[in-house]
């Protein structure tokens, strides 16, 4: 059974990692997907040969990006069922030496762009939900929305912001049958973590911390996103789905 048959989705940060895995899984489950990532990424090649996935090179922080992205989805597919805001960045610097530029870039991508994409998408999602009974917003947060580590002041603040934003969206949009949820990945092998996990000792430490004794893979988070995107999630909203292999079970 294709759990997203007939649905139209937008996935940001879709050139690699969680975004690429999610776009491909959504398409395999029957959705037509607008896969978005910045120019200069692999967005124009990574989904080659997949007819259900249309690539779009846009930086989500551009002033015109939300209108362009949502407008392209409507133009190409006629509607919008699922908005998956997955694009994200991280700045690793102790608060004492973190620059304004590092702080601003992290917040701009991880929170402000998510808000602006949601704001732009809400009318299309409301219209779709009025016709088919449901629509979805899914945002990528992190276990660092409620935990922390050295050097992650901007990242943790941004992901806590994603959680707060999503809670409010869920409250405001529930009456329209639009659910809003966020995913909290743990230690996942993606482009963002590649430099750290290339060190076998560091990778082993983080794998050992998880109850499942391994690092996460992008497909693990894509499957979590699929659950929240599916019709089975009709009564789940305002929820932070922790997908961390048990990383945060111990304090």
Q: Main traits of this protein?
A:
single chain; 251 residues; globular; alpha/beta; 7-stranded parallel sheet
> What letter string, H or E per element, gives the SSE order?
EHEEHEHEHEHHHE
Unreliable segments of 5+ consecutive residues? none
Q: What distance lies between the first and last C-alpha atoms, to the nearest angstrom?
A: 40 Å
The portion of residues forming beta strands comes to 15-25%
> Major β-sheet, in short?
7 strands, parallel
| Average predicted local confidence, pLDDT | 96
What would you say the CATH architecture is?
A: 3-Layer(aba) Sandwich
Q: Which structural class do you get from the secondary structure elements? A: alpha/beta
Rg over CA atoms, rounded to whole Å, is: 17 Å
**Percent range of helical residues:** 40-55%
Number of helices: 7
Number of strands: 7
Tally of distinct domains? 1
CATH class term: Alpha Beta
Lateral strand order in the biggest sheet: 3-2-1-4-5-6-7
CATH superfamily: NAD(P)-binding Rossmann-like Domain
Predict the CATH topology.
Answer: Rossmann fold
Give a topology summary.
Layout (H helix, E strand, L loop, with lengths): L7 E5 L4 H12 L3 E6 L15 E5 L7 H13 L4 E4 L14 H33 L2 E6 L12 H21 L4 E8 L8 H4 L2 H10 L8 H12 L10 E4 L8
Parallel strand pairs: 1-2, 1-4, 2-3, 4-5, 5-6, 6-7
Helix pairs in contact: 1-7, 2-3, 3-4
Notes on the structure:
By secondary structure, the chain is an alpha/beta fold. It has a single domain, classed as NAD(P)-binding Rossmann-like Domain (Rossmann fold). It has helices at residues 17-28, 65-77, 100-132, 153-173, 194-197, 200-209, 218-229, and strands spanning 8-12, 32-37, 53-57, 82-85, 135-140, 178-185, 240-243. Strands 3-2-1-4-5-6-7 form a seven-stranded parallel beta sheet, sandwiched between helices.
